[in-house]
Input
Amino acid sequence: MRAAAAIVLLCVPAGIAGISQQPARAADVAPLRTLRYAVEVSIKDRRETQGGGIAGTRPGMEFKGHVVGGGNPTRGDGDSTAGVAVSAKGAIAVDVVAATDDMGLIVDVAEDAPSRTHAKVRVAIPSRGELLFDPKRAADVSEEERALLHWLARGFFSERSATPGTYWTVDESGEGRIDVERYRVLSSDQHRVTLNYELEEKGAGSEGFAGRRTGSLVYDTALVVPVKASFDEEAHRTVDGGFDTLRSQFAFELTADSFAGKR
Output
């Protein structure tokens, strides 16, 4: 996924690739900017299997490059249903460690929330918002972090109008996939705009998936950061003869920004 998958670093400019491959270390220089977000997550995954039950583990849906859920082994005969639910409140920390000449950012991101806590991951964010990181760390970059980092891209709103009604589409579809974001300006007040947000995703094949997000985003055009966002997501996928339905709710809000006094 454009906003959700690790991309091989060799295919990006040397400036971003070189910095983003450096591991995050306690001895690193102080970040250029620090951002802190409160985050709330609710995920419900349900798998239905007809004729044969479910063998193995409870559904751990591999969606957007990582597995959500999973649990104790379950087995049965006939039609079966299994599910898993995750709810968490916590914080996401983003430290900006470099800004590149091509409008890119290098950040260290970490999340502190029950069942979703992990160590820092170094991520490169080119101007368009794709995320570049070590594929071996994919499980350590959560869905909510990926959405947040995507909107931190310096080019996200750089050439957009804040006039209410302004509408644009970001279409990264191709090779049998649909991947389309849609934004509309609902209102603006000084340096902040409120946007309506939609994301449509579809993949073909025997284990294809279909997903849709709807929500809203408050963005600070002067400080170039998302301030507040919330969205609901529903995704469907066929996996191992079962039909997975994943329903998620995400919300985050900026609680601290070291640039807050530099408007």
About this structure: Residues 3 and 130 are 5 Å apart (CA to CA). The chain is about 5% helix and 50% strand. Residues 1-14, 23-27, 53-78 have pLDDT under 50 and may be disordered. Residues 9-256 form a domain with the Lipovitellin-phosvitin complex; beta-sheet shell regions fold (CATH 2.30.230).
